[in-house]
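During the second year of the project, the team shifted from modelling isolated chains to modelling whole assemblies. The rationale, set out in the original proposal, was that interfaces cannot be judged from single-chain predictions alone. As a representative example for this report, we include one of the complexes processed in the last quarter. Its constituent sequences, exactly as entered into the pipeline, are reproduced here:
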Amino acid sequence: QVQLVQSGAEVKSPGASVKVACKASGYSFTDYGFSWVRQAPGQGLEWMGWLSSSNGNTRYIEKFQGRVTMTTDTSTSTAYMELRSLTSGDTAVYYCARTLWFGDLYYFDYWGQGTLVTVSS
Amino acid sequence: EIVLTQSPGTLSLSPGETATLSCRASQSLSSNYMAWYQQKPGQAPRLLVYGASSRATGIPDRFSASGSGTDFTLTISRLEPEDFAVYYCQRKTFGQGTKVEIK
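Output from the structure prediction step:
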């Protein structure tokens, strides 16, 4: 069965970077891309961007341009999301989600369990 | 950018009742594509519906979706105890969510 297993919780200082891993299993890794979605405490869901597992193409929302990098390692079927220059506003649960496209629209059919990133001095 | 506004913010219902959740787009949508997700406390979201009204794998038929233009609806018939959760619509961005709570 499809599983996305994320790395554990992180505590970072303001200005630091964090890299979250998402290991996929149960399907052909390069057949689907990944999105990263975050959720601040008590808040809704925010799509951060998408990464193709087959060719490395990315699409980031403007808010995170220049501060986020999404990558994959096909040898280990793992997707990564690195966020730099962290502030307290980045404190959130970060989810990876397998992404299917429908024209220029997309949806998320499987999700990782989430990784809590806490930014605190 | 299209903004999705969900209403009501909270819906208080009893098991067995029907929940009707609204998702309104800030402009008319060229296609009736919408995805809906369920999220329970401490859990990741789960895909319920994608495309116009296709249920995801394993989703019971008491969940149905419809809509076009600016107005989209998720209907949950015969609410079960496990259906009390937060629901999000999504088309690129997400709506802010509707919480379905036990009355």
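Chain B has a mean pLDDT of 96. Chain B has no helices and eleven strands.
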